[in-house]
Design a protein that fits this description.
- The complex is a heterodimer of chains A (133) and B (309).
- Chain A is mostly beta strands and 133 residues long.
- Chain A contains no helices and 10 strands.
- Chain B is α+β, with helices and mostly antiparallel strands and 309 residues long.
- Helix content of chain B is 32%, strand content 17%.
- A 4-stranded mixed β-sheet of chain B has the order 5-8-7-6, with helices on both faces. A two-stranded antiparallel sheet of chain B has the order 1-4. A two-stranded antiparallel ribbon of chain B has the order 2-3.
- In chain B, α1 (59-73) crosses α7 (211-220) and α2 (80-95) crosses α7.
- The chains are: A mainly beta (133), B alpha+beta (309).
- At the A-B interface, β4, β6, β7, β8 and β10 of A face α1 and β2 of B.
């Protein structure tokens, strides 16, 4: 299998791609960025990685039609609630059309290639796709 | 604050912005050379820019999500695009009476809904107008006011509350900016300090950076029952002839949003009405007003102002 690299360091690739949050050891607040201290309680005790579920519920969304150069439009973006932890993501495998999207709909993580660099490494991005049981 | 502390008794607050032609704010572009090695960078260890690939960081999209989240939490059965377009229709109608507004053009509901879509449900006229602008306020202590000529004293406006808040950490606040918690805290403190309730207000200038933002701030500023922002707007209350006019200046959507000047411009607008100097757009008999401003990051200012004497 050719080498792969995740688009962001909180995306874990492999057989079951998933997201990880960094959880404050003192107050359990969760973050996705690299931090020296907790933005909620101020503690610098440290953070533990917590795997997040692949399935969640769409909290809100938009369809962006005007964006920076290089960003293909239109695209659907939203906030997904993964069992109490919110993440920002694109909504994929669905037309970027407000009529196809609904806050409260169930969604599931999916990954896709973003391109291969001159060393043969492929970057892997993620999004959430509508998913009904 | 220096006046309140007794260190000064006369101050000048100035806000200035040069923003014309700045275009879409908060975006950097995502161009990268073909084949350039993927290299993790920044706080998220990202190998490429995230805007547009991991959700949106652009303001029209951010505030679109904030507005639609409100309609999800307080279930709405109507068409969101039309609802937010009607809020924009109000502010653009108000702007026709404000010669200082960046745009003074009345727009029909159909025009607003059929304009260029920026980030659903925000079409272009539902987004604040990037423009240059400046505003200023002269602040005086009670003692300094007494030394001023009667004609100036007559125009003085009482600052009944001046509150600045920052946002506490909330779940999701780094995923989608939370402009509600700090606005609610600022409003509650301002009403308490001023001894004035939302029911006492004669007009409000609030931070309608997008039509979607205006709706949620009706609720955040407690102008309506909790969760009742849509009913409050539908009642016609926020039109200039309604029970509690909101953004009679035209708001940020048509008066414009020169970011550094926006806060004081809102204060100035309320003052004009309290002085009876609002010209064609005067809200008759205005005695108490509220001005609200947001800066993402986040900070919120709320002022309650009253006509002196």
């Amino acid at each position: 299998m050719p080498p792969e690299v995740p688009l962001v360091d909180y995306l874990v690739l492999g057989d079951h791609p998933h997201l990880v949050a960094r959880q404050c050891r003192d107050c359990a607040a969760r973050f996705f960025d690299r931090r020296n201290a907790c933005a909620s309680c101020g503690s610098a005790t440290g953070f533990d990685d917590v795997a997040l579920p692949e399935e969640g519920v769409l909290r809100t969304f938009t369809v962006v039609s005007v964006a920076a150069p290089g960003v293909p439009v239109p695209y659907a973006a939203g906030v997904v609630d993964l069992d109490g932890t919110s993440v920002r993501a694109n909504l994929v495998d669905v037309a970027p059309d407000p009529a196809q999207l609904r806050a409260g709909m169930r969604v599931r993580l999916t990954t896709f290639g973003l391109g291969t660099d001159r060393d043969g490494v492929t970057a892997i991005g993620f999004g959430f796709a509508p998913w009904e049981k | 604050m220096a006046i309140k502390a007794g260190e000064a008794d006369l101050g000048l607050a100035v806000g200035v912005e040069k923003l014309s032609g700045a275009g879409l704010l908060g975006v950097r572009g995502t161009e990268r050379a073909d084949g350039e090695p993927w290299t993790p960078q920044g706080r998220y260890g990202s190998v490429a820019p995230m805007d547009g690939w991991v959700g949106t960081e652009t303001m029209p999209g951010v505030f679109a999500q904030i507005g639609l989240e409100y309609l999800h939490e307080h279930p709405y059965t109507g068409a969101p695009l039309e609802l937010f377009a009607r809020i924009s229709e109000k502010n653009h109608a108000h702007s026709t009476l404000n010669p200082l507004a960046a745009y003074t053009k009345r727009m029909s509901l159909a025009q607003i809904m059929n304009e260029v879509m920026v980030a659903y449900p925000n079409t272009r006229p539902m987004c604040s107008a990037n423009c240059d602008g400046a505003a200023a306020a002269v602040l005086v202590s009670d003692a300094a006011l007494r030394r001023l000529p009667r004609e100036q004293r007559r125009r003085a406006v009482k600052v009944s509350a001046s509150v600045l808040t920052s946002d506490p950490w909330q779940e999701a606040c780094q995923v989608l900016p939370d402009v509600s918690t700090l606005t609610r805290q600022a409003a509650a403190t301002a009403y308490e300090t001023a001894g004035v309730g939302p029911e006492d207000l004669d007009l409000v200038e609030l931070h309608d950076c997008f039509a979607t933002a205006e709706l949620i701030h009706y609720d955040n500023l407690m102008l309506c029952e909790p969760g009742g922002a849509v009913d409050f707007f539908d009642s016609g209350a926020t039109w200039r002839d309604g029970r509690l006019p909101v953004n009679v200046s035209g708001g940020l959507q048509s008066k414009g949003h020169p970011i550094g000047a926006t806060g004081i411009a809102g204060v100035w607008e309320v003052c004009q009405h309290l002085r009876g100097e609002g010209g064609d757009r005067q809200i008759g008999g205005a005695r108490v007003g509220l001005a609200h401003v947001i800066g993402l990051g986040s900070a919120c200012g709320v002022h309650v102002l009253e006509r002196a004497a």
